[in-house]
Amino acid sequence: MVSELAAEHDDIARAMRAVPRREFLPRSQRPLAHQDRPLPIGRGQTSSQPATVAAMLRLLRVPVGARVLDIGAGSGWTTALLAYLVGPHGSVLGVERDGRLANWGAANVARTGMQWASIEQATPGVLGHPRPNGWDRILVSAAAPALPRALVEQVGYGGRMVIPIRTTLLLIERLPDGRTRATDHGGYRFVPLIEDLAE
């Protein structure tokens, strides 16, 4: 178990070295890329603190070949990190509600050459991106006021979702019998998910 966790941590460290945050920041913020704090990316959004991103990815336990949904993709950094973790046999879809950010994030991800990852603007009135049989992993980088049922329903069997609810980071797991289990993993601060969609 210890070696399994160590290997997982190494994978995330490798991903963060291979996909530098600097390339996903506005030019004015790039000199600060090494700082372990949120940085503004425009449109009222931020690039999350690297330590927070690493903690979320460790909880998510992304396997090679997984189908992953990245909600609140922003600049595309988390989408690209997830793409690195799943590899070319997996797929990652980032969704971002702000059209201008979605276009910028999509261009940033395209520059990585990982063609199995993409970002698109979120469909108005739809939370997440429903797909048949759900997603293997869902990463949510915005805080909801309550656990959104619509997103829980998009977690496939054996799948995991990491989502901040108010200031608490939750791990949602879909068990083999279809039930879900939620566990609390500490306090964090995130930009808000659209409240009318998160009910």
UniProtKB/TrEMBL annotation:
- Region feature Disordered, mapped onto this chain: 24-47
Q: Coiled coil located at which positions? A: none
Main subcellular localization, coarse class? cytoplasm
Q: Does this entry carry the keyword Lyase? A: no
EC number annotated for this UniProt entry: 2.1.1.77
Cellular localisation = Cytoplasm
Q: Name one matching Pfam family.
A: PCMT
Q: Which UniProt keywords are given for this protein, alphabetically ordered?
A: Cytoplasm, Methyltransferase, S-adenosyl-L-methionine, Transferase
Can you tell me which family this protein belongs to? Belongs to the methyltransferase superfamily. L-isoaspartyl/D-aspartyl protein methyltransferase family.
How is this protein named in the record? Protein-L-isoaspartate O-methyltransferase
Q: Which organism is it from?
A: Promicromonospora aerolata
